[in-house]
Amino acid sequence: MSSEQLNLFPLSAQITPAGELTIAGHSLVELADQYRTPLYLYDGQTIRHQLDTLTGLLERHYPSPSMVAYASKAYFSYAFACKLAELGAGADVVSLGEIHLARQAGFPAEVIHLHGNNKSEEELLAALEWGIQAIVVDSLDELALLEELARRAGRRARIWLRITPDLNVSTHPHITTSHRASKFGLHVENGDAENGIRQALASSWFHLTGLHMHLGSQIFDAEPYRQALRRMFAAAEAAGYIPQEISPGGGWGVRYTEHDPDDSAEPWIKAVSQTVVEECQRRGWPLPKLVVEPGRWLAARSGVALYRVGAQKTTPDGIRVVAIDGGLADNPRVALYQASYTARVVQRAADEPSRRMRIVGKFCESGDVLIPEIWLPPVHRGDLLAVPASGAYQLSMSSNYNYAARPAVLWLEPGRVEVMQCCDRPDQPGWWVYRPEEAR
Fold first, then answer.
1. Which residues are bridge partners to 164 per DSSP?
2. Distances (CA, A) of 342 to 86, 108, 359, 376, 390
3. Taking the domain 45-298, which CATH number applies?
4. What distance lies between CA 170 and its chain's CA centroid?
5. pLDDT tens column, 205-230
6. pTM here?
7. Is 422 tagged catalytic?
8. Which CATH superfamily is domain 3-36+302-421 in?
9. Which of these ranges, 260-264, 401-405, 421-425, has the smallest mean pLDDT?
10. Given 82, 280, 364, 422, which residue is catalytic?
């Protein structure tokens, strides 16, 4: 396997002299035998590297305080949250479950932001009670609801406003969030952004500390961030508001296949930092704290999904169909928005590809296709396929479709394996089994 292809895998990935793919020095064959497949692996070295890289880029390009907050929706579990809290990251949460998980994992309140376009009263009250850095208000309707809840609780709410800049960005329609028809945020063009700022400033129950935006996901062009920030600063100026904190959200792209563009985060961080500095200097404003909220960029490359090959067949058009023991239930991204992946045969990772194949899942849906077309060495029943860049938006969107069990999740360090999530298989204790007497 070439170094270019290995770049899609975690930093600790290597190929042994026997041609077997390993991560953090661990045999993937042995891990799959012990923990079964599908199996998800997270490489500690890669997570630390990604976080350190972003922190270093902010220190290099932004001459004022900054912070990296992990977008929890990419993947969150108690053990994973504890790791990130120990590393000093903040967290962007979007539900009551993520609020409680972040709190239990040891995140301090001052690094937590609550997002969502339709937060429940319970979620808003939990955030108020914890005293988090910011409840990110998404609409004028929510602003009124939160003001009433804060009044009843007798507790002033620390808030940001999510500003929608009404820009189109180049990504899949299902993962863009900044256009004129978006369900998210206070739109600039219809005046909601400016009105929201004025209303928040006028209320004694709000401490409006900052403004937030999020353009979407899998963005590889930094220019839309510049344009959006300019619109956000213009809305703030029109409303007579100088933000103490600014967040451009996340959304910077990652590589899933060898054909994807370079995913260095420096163009993104540099553009965001320069634009905030320029906009503040133009107005004579002090620099705000800059908070970036990556999820995919921190977690995706660290994760690898392992599947075991099962049945095979050849279609009339000559494509070899290879079925694996996972698919749609643990990774719905392909079905949702045509996400692209690649894979390698673990036991023969260095072998040259020689046959065109289609990798499909085991679930009762024609759309359960993981990789529509890929060239691989010949594979046999029992072989393992390793799919890189599987650390984000797979497990967090997984299901028990067809009553399938969710896979085990491991954290890998050299010489150490930690179980972050146990497999909930029906043949293991704890799996719910229907008993007629329990339905009475």
1. 187
2. 32, 38, 10, 10, 10
3. 3.20.20.10
4. 18
5. 999 999 999 998 899 999 999 999 99
6. 0.92
7. no
8. Lyase, Ornithine Decarboxylase; Chain A, domain 1 (2.40.37.10)
9. 421-425
10. 364
